[in-house]
Design brief:
About 45% of the residues lie in helices and about 15% in strands. By secondary structure, it is an alpha/beta fold. It catalyses: 2-phosphoglycolate + H2O = glycolate + phosphate.
């Protein structure tokens, strides 16, 4: 099919393609240890907070100390990013079947892209180390453009740079941010039921829920042809 009319599947990264929570929590805990507080976050119990970003993790930890201070969060955020970059793939793993599903979509003629609220440089490093960068025609991060999801601009850029067409595209994600992005653009949304919120994402009323990556090609075909 012509390059500029390829149907396109746009993926979120954290909590959708890969479980990055343990490495994110470890980076936040490195900040707290450096301040003499020890590990304040739990890699399992606080996994959902991890997927809301570095500042959210810092806010939670300082709140537990009764020291919620925006200036302190701002000061520790660069420390967190460095700690995360140093151990970005220590515990992170792709969800089962993710690679096979993306390869199947590409073989069927779909363009594939990543649109994430992780900083672009960190996202590029992670997907390269996970061995999947070549499976995606574009990668748009939190700082690639002046705005981030759920603003529609990053999604639109991801589709365009992948050689796709927005009117035949959809997003695969795991959080309300991805659902709101889909609504802002006017495209279908598939939310994974194995991410940080589990089956609870059904409350967001996506066009489809994904329980296993093996089911993704069929869902995509049904939603955008």
């Amino acid at each position: 099919m012509p390059l500029q009319t390829k149907p396109t599947v746009v993926f979120d990264l954290d909590g959708t393609l890969a479980d990055t929570s343990a490495d994110l929590i470890a980076a936040a805990n490195a900040c707290f240890r450096g301040l003499g507080h020890g590990d304040l976050l739990d890699p399992v119990a606080d996994a959902l907070t991890a997927f809301h970003g570095g500042r959210a993790m810092l806010k939670l930890g300082f709140a537990r100390l009764g020291q919620l201070d925006e200036a302190m969060i701002a000061a520790q955020y660069p420390v967190l990013l460095k700690a995360y970059a140093d151990g970005i793939d220590t515990h992170t793993r792709l969800y089962p079947g993710a690679t096979d599903a993306v390869e199947a979509l590409r073989s069927a003629g779909y363009a594939t892209a990543i649109c994430t609220n992780k900083p672009e440089g960190l996202a590029e490093t992670l997907v390269t180390r996970l061995g999947i960068r070549g499976l995606f025609g574009s990668l748009i991060g939190a700082d690639t453009l002046p705005t981030r999801k759920p603003d529609p601009a990053p999604y639109l850029a991801a589709v365009e740079q992948a050689g796709g067409i927005v009117s035949r595209s959809l997003i695969v994600g795991d959080t309300e941010t991805d659902r709101l992005t889909a609504r802002a653009v006017g495209v279908p949304c598939i939310l994974v039921g194995f991410g940080p919120e589990g089956p609870g994402v059904a409350r967001l009323n996506p066009e489809a829920l994904l329980d296993h990556y093996a089911d993704l090609p069929g869902l995509v075909a049904r939603l955008i042809g």
